[in-house]
Amino acid sequence: MTNEKVSNKWTKKQVLVLTGLWLAFLISFITRLVWATLMPTVNSAMHFSVSQGNWYVTAFYIGYTITVLPGGMLADKIGYRKMVLFTVIGNCVAMSLMGFMQGYWSGLAFRFILGLVSGPDLAACMGVIGEWFSAKQRATATGIFTTCTSFGLTVVNLYAPTVSQRYGWRSAMFVTALIPLVVLGFVAYSLKGQPPYRLIKKNVQVADANKESSIVMLKKAVTNRNVLLLAVTGLCATGAKWGVTNWANLFIVSSLGFSVVTAGKVMALFGITSVISMVIAGWVSDHSRMSRHMLSAIFMAIFTPTIIGFALSPKGNLGMLYFWAGALGVGAFMFSSLTNTLSVEVAPTELRGTVVGFVNVFNQAGSFLAPMLLGSLLTATGSYVTSFLVISVFPLIGFVALLFIREGNKNTKKSTVNVQSQPNLVSTKH
């Protein structure tokens, strides 16, 4: 990107911005995951069946998927900061409604609404990262930013069961609604100011002046070679990631014969290595001369052998299970920092939100379809190993797709310059 400084050194403001984004996206994961933690208690209190409780999970993801793309497109038009604040406020309102649910259908509707208001979150946050961090800082920032996805599960389990047990599940819902309200002021404050890497086009800031129709914006995104390749990557690799993650505990217990407690400890290590690997991957990319897509492909190539190793873990050998679970955490998540960063960097600059939203649709589709595929394979073959081995092929498709990405859009570079190179440009409040 033209005139961007190549320094890796961060300013205090960048740290503040990333902290605000991390909290905003953490909130999204806390509110979506709290149902899984409270579901046994609510099912019992409201006389829901297991199937009805599971539909609450599905309702969220249906709503989320619906607004992923249009939310990203809207973020390109109104500004990423505004959309981040909207998702935080929306999470507060939707969770408050969950505390007042009176029956199955009202709760299902509120979970759907929660999904709708959460859909634009990733596109908006990645748009802010694109505006506040240079090309030599972005992957590290994204790696740190995405750690909140794993941390959200930890936070939920720290407070929700205890509050529910002592004060009731409705109180746990209201506490969850209070969290976004508490951090809203900080998020709004941290994201204030003139982003140093907000690009301008024809002397008008892109984020404030995208007047193109939604159809034109979408057409530009879906006809972009790099965007389509990232979509294929997301469908295959993200699907494999969450498919294996969702079935791992059951595999450890049912196939390898370990206890539920042991399975939880093993998967805790999986979570730890996933968080560490995402940060390391971003740092390595920002400090390496290797192109982002090639490094991402190398990291993704690790995923397939780690799935195979995990699937072939010998029964009764806890040491090997820990080893392969830790390796699987690296293989399943290490590439995420770079593929998310590529979504911001390889597409037309004025369509960052649209592109991240479009790619995220395929990520969500993979997250839906892969667990279903694993379940179908398990039913048909009766073998966890066979099912995992089939799934292990999909990251290879993502690996090949990444090899064909072309970084550096010359047309985009010619038409955009850094705000810092236009000192006389009047700042637009955003």
The largest β sheet comes out as: 3 strands, antiparallel
CATH topology of the largest domain: Growth Hormone, Chain: A
- Return Rg in Å: 21 Å
Number of helices: 19
Q: State the CATH architecture of the largest domain.
A: Up-down Bundle
Q: Helix coverage percent of residues? A: over 70%
CATH H level, superfamily name of the largest domain: MFS general substrate transporter like domains
SSE string: HHHHHHHHEEHHHHHHHHHHHE
Span of the ends, CA to CA: 22 Å
CATH class of the largest domain: Mainly Alpha
Mean pLDDT: 84
Low-pLDDT residue spans: 1-5, 201-209, 409-430
Globally, the shape reads globular
Beta-strand share of residues: under 5%
Number of strands: 3
How many distinct domains? Answer: 2
Structural class call reads mainly alpha
What order do the strands of the largest sheet run in, or round the barrel if closed? 2-1-3
Membrane topology: Multi-pass membrane protein
Pfam families: MFS_1
Keywords: Membrane, Transmembrane, Transmembrane helix, Transport
Subcellular location: Cell membrane
